[in-house]
Design goal:
The chain is an alpha+beta fold. The protein contains 10 helices and 10 strands. The chain has 2 domains: about 160 residues, 2-Layer Sandwich (BirA Bifunctional Protein, domain 2), CATH 3.30.930.30; about 70 residues, no CATH class. Helices cover about 50% and strands about 15% of the residues. The radius of gyration is 44 Å and the shape is elongated.
Length: about 325
């Protein structure tokens, strides 16, 4: 059993939703007749209009309270059904455990879904002017549901982790919803090579896919699960898809034959056990040889340039030496 608790401002809106027939399609105005059946009243009675007036009158005993409406939904698992008498017993037990057994409330059974469920609308303001606290309401309803499951032999549901003791949190838990999503992701990845292909196949399985910095999946019951929670983060999914593409490329018969032909056509690699490594080695040796030859040529060119400069300076030096000799031979009287 799954329990949901909400508090609100308007008795009118809540009661009309729970008591009126349901519109199936807004455009065609199709209406589901007889979807709601009142199971029991407490401190109140009448049709929707009368109930709204009675609830409103009592809430005036505490006019400062902004949210006097307490709305509880109790849903059974698909396939499970209980008689109206047992649903009434569950309603009374819920009122006692949640603290509004002496207040106004009405229990309404709905048959507009595949699973049986009932709504309880209660007035948080009592006839004694006291207000029912909404503190820890989620924890209280979770505890109540676990108790009812055991009492009536219903399918047991795991409590949210934040309501468990430290010791209970250490116990490994198996979440069937997450396990199912994880299995669907695994199957879809095995069948996909690209992200858009993966996303289309997940949508075909009934999931909404939300991609941002990470990735999340929303199932048919509008429950959102992050990919990282089931060990399939966006990075992991993209890595698996890339691996699938490379594996497909490698296993393709035409690509494999082409690779063999390329390897056979490479010179000097047929007789060598490590053709690629040997080729790299030869290339490195050739590169070193070219560098050595360049250094030799550069040295030779530099030497020739220096020699040429020396030969150009030689006539200038001889001319200066001859001029000095003439000056020494000239007579002193002149």
């Amino acid at each position: 059993m799954i329990g949901k608790v909400t508090v609100g401002k308007s008795f009118k809106g809540c009661l009309l939703y729970c008591l009126n027939d349901k519109k199936q399609d807004i455009q065609t105005q199709d209406v589901m007749k007889g979807r709601a059946k009142i199971l029991m009243f407490n401190q109140c009675y009448g049709n929707a209009k009368e109930l709204i007036a009675q609830f409103h009158d009592v809430r005036q005993l505490n006019p400062k309270l902004s949210k006097p409406v307490l709305h509880i939904t109790l849903s059974l698992a698909p396939g499970e059904r209980l008689s109206n008498d047992k649903l009434m017993e569950i309603t009374q037990q819920c009122a006692h455990d949640m603290g509004f057994e002496n207040n106004q409330y009405v229990a309404i059974s709905h048959n507009d879904t595949s699973h049986q469920h009932l709504h309880i609308v209660a007035n948080r303001v009592g006839l004694d002017k006291r207000t029912v606290s909404d503190s820890q309401s989620y924890k209280k309803i979770a505890t109540f549901c676990r108790k009812i499951e055991l009492k009536y032999g219903l399918k047991q549901v795991l409590n949210p982790g934040r309501y468990l003791s430290r010791e209970q949190r250490q116990i490994p838990r198996s979440d069937q919803r997450k396990n199912q999503i994880k299995e669907h992701i695994r199957q879809t990845l095995n069948e996909s090579r690209y992200y858009h292909e993966f996303e289309q196949k997940m949508k075909a399985k009934g999931y909404q896919v939300i991609k941002g910095r990470g990735i999340s999946f929303i199932d048919k019951k509008k429950v959102k699960v992050k990919g990282s929670e089931v060990n399939y983060s966006l990075q992991t999914i993209e890595r698996i898809l890339e691996k699938n593409r490379l594996l497909e490329l490698k296993q393709a018969p035409g690509n494999l034959k082409m690779q063999e032909q390329i390897e056979q056509s490479k010179p000097g690699l047929k007789s060598e056990p490590h053709g690629l490594a040997e080729k790299e080695k030869l290339k490195l040796e050739n590169d070193n040889s070219v560098v050595k030859d360049l250094l030799k040529d550069l040295t030779k060119i530099t030497f020739d340039v220096m020699k040429s400069e020396q030969s150009m300076d030689l006539p200038q030096k001889e001319f200066q030496q001859k001029k000095k000799r003439k000056k020494r031979l000239r007579p002193s009287g002149h």
